[in-house]
Amino acid sequence: MPSAPELPTCWIFDMDGTLALMGGRSPYDMGRVSEDQPHSPVVQLAQALAAHPGVDRMVIASGRNERARRGTETWLVFHGIPFDALYMRPDDDQRRDDVVKEEILDREILTRYRVLGVVDDRQQVVDMWRRRGLTCLQAAPGDF
């Protein structure tokens, strides 16, 4: 993955299905994100990576839309999940997650960070990260 070596390093994490388990919440119901449960093994991985001296920043790239920002940030803080940046889709954006996240990668992440790896669940998004030359750990089967 081409990026300048002087940029701070980061790991990228997804929200729904990766850090957060939705349970009975529809993925489109942004008003109930506070009800999500932490995906403990993934949360522990994020915490361990954030504490590693070779990792400068923790980045969240979410398919959630902007109207869920406040609830998402509150949830992350409440569950002790470290993050330095949270990138989300615009409220009116209905494109596929892989398209949205690839745009976030190009516009926001690669201009600011040297990406060490990604943790995501959705297959189409995992495929995109890997196609772009990034190491992507798949947190759960995500063929939807």
Structure summary:
It is built from 4 helices and 7 strands. It is of the alpha/beta class and 144 residues long. Strands 5-4-1-6-7 form a 5-stranded parallel β-sheet, sandwiched between helices.
Please specify the SSE layout and strand pairing.
Blueprint: E1 9-13, E2 20-21, E3 37-38, H1 40-51, E4 57-65, H2 69-78, E5 85-89, H3 97-109, E6 114-120, H4 123-131, E7 136-138
Parallel strand pairs: 1-4, 1-6, 4-5, 6-7
Antiparallel strand pairs: 2-3
Uncertain segments are: none
Q: Determine the mean pLDDT.
A: 94
Main sheet: which strands, in order across?
A: 5-4-1-6-7
What string, H for helix and E for strand, traces the elements in order?
Answer: EEEHEHEHEHE
CATH H-level superfamily: HAD superfamily/HAD-like
Strand content: 15-25%
Distance between the termini: 27 Å
How would you classify the helix and strand content by structural class? alpha/beta
Give the overall shape, derived from the CA principal axes. globular
By CATH reckoning, the class would read Alpha Beta
| Helix proportion range | 25-40%
Number of domains: 1
Number of helices: 4
Number of strands: 7
At the fold tier of CATH, the topology name is: Rossmann fold
The CATH architecture would be 3-Layer(aba) Sandwich
